Amino acid sequence: MILVLVGPPGAGKGTQAKLLCSRFGIPQISTGDMLREAKRAGTLEKRYLDIMDSGGLLPDEAVIGLIARRTVEPDCGNGFLLDGFPRTVPQATALDELLASQGGRRIDAVLQLDVPRPLLEERLIHRRTDKRSGQIYHLVYNPPPPGAELEHRADDRPEAVSKRLDAYDAMTAALLPFYEEKQLLHRVDGVGKPEEVTHRVLSAVGRSGSGGE
Q1: Which of 21, 25, 103, 113 has a CB 3.0–4.6 Å from the CB of 190, allowing a cystine?
Q2: What positions carry a catalytic annotation?
Q3: Selection from 132, 110, 136 nearest residue 212 by Cα
């Protein structure tokens, strides 16, 4: 089972990714996590480190190279879930070519979590992190305990949230139609309790053999 999970910041991808991976016994591959780990391990070329340090986006070949190495590891034998990649049509095309080169592998389903923008903004803007534990709380839905040392991350502040959502919309504008045409895209209502969304996601995966919605 090879899955691609897409959705804007605040859509709940992290929660659903963990549940899906547990259900199907496959690893979650987050490009963000891989890049941070490569940076810590010193395995990323200096030119790419410089781009990361300046806040820029790495070229596609750098990210595809990391994915190529990760997806041939033993725990990916039964598949994997990609979180945060691809985000553009060229990346999606490169991913298809990579999978084809690995013995004809291919994506089983692309899952898009749909959440209205006002709710995304509410989820993100009210999010706080405990500096000591790293635990993430929400001032409305999951309030922190007394005494928590809270931090409001820069990218969760209103202006940054608006820019992040605009950037996501612009970047994926062509990606979703690309997968829809391939009958791989399943749009899932991401509003509700996590277990309700999980039920919808699993239903969509179950329909993946019969094409997109």
Answers
A1: 113
A2: 13, 87, 127, 153, 164
A3: 110
In terms of CATH, what superfamily is 1-205? P-loop containing nucleotide triphosphate hydrolases (3.40.50.300)
b/e map 147-163, b = 16+ CB within 10 Å: ebeeeeeeebeeeebee
Collapse the DSSP code of 1 into the 3-class scheme (helix H, G, I; strand E, B; otherwise coil) and give the result: coil
How far is residue 57's CA from residue 51's CA, in Å, rounded to a whole number? 7
Q: Does residue 176 surpass a pLDDT of 90? A: yes
125 is in an annotated binding site: no
Of 213, 126, 120, 201, the C-alpha closest to 167 is 120
What are 61-103's pLDDT values in tens digits? 888 988 999 999 999 999 999 998 898 999 999 999 999 999 9
Is 62 annotated to bind a ligand? Reply is no
Q: Cis peptide before 8, with omega less than 30 degrees from 0?
A: no
| pTM of the shown model | 0.84
Domain boundaries, the chain: 1-205
- Is 88 annotated for ligand binding? no
Question: Are 83 and 13 a contacting pair, CB within 8 Å?
Answer: yes
How far from chain centre, in Å, is Cα 18? 11
